[in-house]
Amino acid sequence: MGKFVECVPNFSEGRDVKMINEIVEAAKTVPGVLVLDVEKDADHNRTVLTFIAPLETAVEAMVAVAKKAAALIDLNAHKGEHPRMGATDVAPFIPIMDTTIEECIKLAELAGERIGRELNIPVYLYDRAARTENRRDLAKVRKGQFEGLREEIGKNPDRAPDFGPNHIHPTAGAMAVGARNQIVNFNVNLATTDMEFAKGLAKKIRTSGGGLPALRAKEIFLESRGQVQMSTVLTDYRTTSIKRVMDEISGELAPKNIAITGTELIGLTSQEAITDYAVEALNVKDFNKDVQVLETKLLKLLGTWQAGAGLFVEALASTDPTPGGGSAGAVSGAMGCALGQMALGITLRGKKLEEAKRPALVLLRERLGEHKAALQSCVSEDSASFDVFWAAMKLPKDNPERKAKMQAALKYAAEVPLKTARLASEALAGLAVCAASVSPQVISDYRSAVYLLEAAVRCAAENVLINAEALEDKACAEKLAAEVKGYLPAYASGQSVH
Predict the structure, then answer these.
(1) Mapped to the 3 state alphabet, what secondary structure does the chain carry?
(2) Distances from the Cα of 491 to the Cα of 41, 352, 371, 434, angstroms
(3) What does the pLDDT read at residue 2?
(4) Is residue 272 within 8 Å of residue 195, measured between CB atoms?
(5) For the chain, what is the radius of gyration of the CA atoms?
């Protein structure tokens, strides 16, 4: 499995569903992105988006959502309980699986530079990506929020950003972009309206006030519920657990006879943090989560590449309409790119490679990574395009919108495999240029990559042409067919699939 990174941008909008959806869609347009969760809160007026992306496209995805948020959100009109300084307030890259924190730091730097340059938004690197110690703490970076930073930036050297202009963006504010490990956002709702007591409690339990290590805490009044919330962030849940936070808060509430009315976990939470709470609360002895948790054992078995391949093959073998030939072609293309990456990677490690050839091979390997991620997105997109057509076809025949929706869906169902063919053809062209430089020890893998990419183009062409045939807009159909046929002669012996 390729390397992925978790991205958790926080946006200063938690009430306008249409606006939130537009920002989420911006992430989905980037190849390889999988949206895991969208957590919106009207009181905080804030949304936490969680998605994973390949290392090759993670920066592009973060820039895309920041750009969309900057276009939609005006902080001058923003009101909410949560501190904020930007339309996209914070944007952390978080290592998952085999990705390292060092790789996430590099991604944060690349994203920060692009956001500053392209969107004209001042960017502050924070947490593990911070360039100075006083910017490791997000609360210090965000001090004064949008309004306070607007007054200080450009005047106070300590508030100069790491990237972008040394002045606030008039509507989108500023951004904190960083790299960090997994955290837990944990809120505790209290049966009280006493904000003075809550303020003292927050100060007492958080690290900066001499309380628990690796804990941030802030008191918030929830207008919609008429009660106080203790909003906490466990920056290292292995050092300070959820159970320990609960015990500390409960101990402070008992003398005041204040009850806890409920708790909240915001965004996605590590399974380990939840399991640890259960183990602590139950006082389980000699517990081994790797051995004793059923789901953990199953995930380890199903998470192998062998299991993944088996699942996809069985899905193809089923009588369900999706996945079909279009998805199979996209998988073939992604595998071709992956094998090409492997062959070039081994070639680049060889001592006999001429130095003059190295830059071209490095660049091609990077491009194959990008195309691999894009083709992986085509796998699910191809199936989704059929689902759109099927939904349109199931509309009542007397529905006046049925015919137009079916035609639009057919066009989309042709455009997706056309993208597959285009990407696979571009990858083939790159491999052809560097064929003479490939190490003899991986020439069979290199050729296999070519064959897989050729198969991808053929599979995609079949799907483009069959869907284009059903289009009533013949000019559009001919254009789609002409483009996809143009990708075939590069290797076909003069014979068209249709």
Answers:
(1) CCCEEEECCEECCCCCHHHHHHHHHHHHCCCCCEEEEEEEECCCCEEEEEEEEECCCHHHHHHHHHHHHHHHCCHHHCCCCCCCCECEEEEEEEECCCCCHHHHHHHHHHHHHHHHHHHCCCEEEEECCCCCHHHCCHHHHCCCHHHHHHHHCCCCHHHCCCECCCCCECCCECEEEEECCCCEEEEEEECCCCHHHHHHHHHHHCHHHCCCCCEEEEEEEECCCCEEEEEEEECCCCCCCHHHHHHHHHHHHHHHCCCEEEEEEECCCCHHHHHHHHHHHHCCCCCCHHHHCHHHHHHHHHCCHHHHHHHHHHHHHCCCCCCCHHHHHHHHHHHHHHHHHHHHHHHHHCCCCCHHHHHHHHHHHHHHHHHHHHHHHHHHHHHHHHHHHHHHHCCCCCCCCHHHHHHHHHHHHHHHHHHHHHHHHHHHHHHHHCHHHCCHHHHHHHHHHHHHHHHHHHHHHHHHHHHHHCCCCHHHHHHHHHHHHHCCCCCCCCCCCC
(2) 54, 30, 19, 16
(3) 64
(4) no
(5) 26
What confidence tens digit (pLDDT) does each residue in 125-135 have?
A: 999 999 999 99
Ordered by where they begin, the domains of the chain are 4-179 (3.30.990.10), 184-293 (3.30.70.670), 305-486 (1.20.120.680)
Which letter, b or e, does each residue of 59-97 get, where b requires 16 or more Cβ atoms within 10 Å of its Cβ? bbbbbbbbbbbbebbebeebebbbbbbbbbbbbbbbbee
pLDDT digits (tens, 9 = 90+) for 318-376: 988 888 899 999 999 999 999 999 999 999 998 888 888 889 999 999 999 999 988 98
- Residue 106 pLDDT: 97
Q: Which two tokens stand for residue 132?
A: 């100075």
The per-residue pLDDT for 497 is 41
Tokens of 447: 């050729």
Q: Is 337 exposed, middle or buried (0-12, 13-18, 19+ CB in 10 A)?
A: buried
Q: List, by residue number, the catalytic residues.
A: 82, 382
What is the C-alpha to C-alpha distance for residues 64 and 69, in angstroms, rounded to an integer?
Answer: 9
